[in-house]
Description:
alpha/beta, 8-stranded parallel β-barrel, 8 strands, globular
Amino acid sequence: MKQMLARYPIGNPRRKWRQDNFVISLINPGPMGLEHAGEVAREKARRGVETAKDAGFNLAEFCWSSREVGLEMVRTAERVGLDVAYQDLLRFGGMGYRGRQNLSPEENDLDGILRDSAAWKCIKGLEIYDEPITEEQRKLARSMVDRAEEMRPGLFPSVISDAGYIDAVADEVDPVNVSFDLYPFGNWGGCCPPAEGQLDTFRFWEYLEIGRLAAKRIGAPYWFVYQGHALPYHPSFDVFTFAAARVMANAALLYGAKGLACYIECDGVLDPTTGGHGVYFEEQKELNRELAALGNTLMALECRRVIHDKSVREGTN
Length: 317
């Protein structure tokens, strides 16, 4: 007999925000950087959000957009019915963009954005902090999460960790979810092995386990940000295909991830010139369709252990 597994909202017991559906997120569907402005940038942003919706994402994260581009994406998301985690680099930090990470109290208008964002139905969260590496940054991230929770307890305050600082962020920020990013496919300063062996030698599986245990320790949902295309600033091997993105996403599911974010730079699932359907659109849409179909089941299950064969264990040691 088919039986529907019981599913309940999940969340850090010390935080107010709760996750009630499996999150399939896209970072970032529009032009990235404060230098992007004008009708061409706005049109690309509009197309990017529409493409994200068409591809089956249920959350769009606006991390490094100019105010003009960000607002255009919000207007489009409101129109097409796509949830948003919002950021305004000029009003609140810390996304690590050209000195905008550690804003002074006078510059950091988090209270203002918390008030203003309430006017938009689609804004379900804020991108609070990306990769707080230092103790000072983690202290600031925690204070911003605390403030967001105080003013808008139902809003999702996102903090994404660098892979090497998962435990520190979990313990010092006490975030609403444990989320980290990792992009192993590429020639990162010549440090990576040939493409076919990168996942086994890049500490990929080890980091997934560190994240799983950190999420379990603080009782928070576990999310993972995977690489969605060949990153331009660290030239990737020309054998990169969407199979690399798919295996990263599916691996995170094995470790109990309740949210997956596809990291792009207006490429991959999007066309980098127009924001329309990109080279991986159909493959990403199929993956998202599978994730959406599994969502209720994945939310109800708990990962207790992952066992690898000898070859993977040797590769990660």
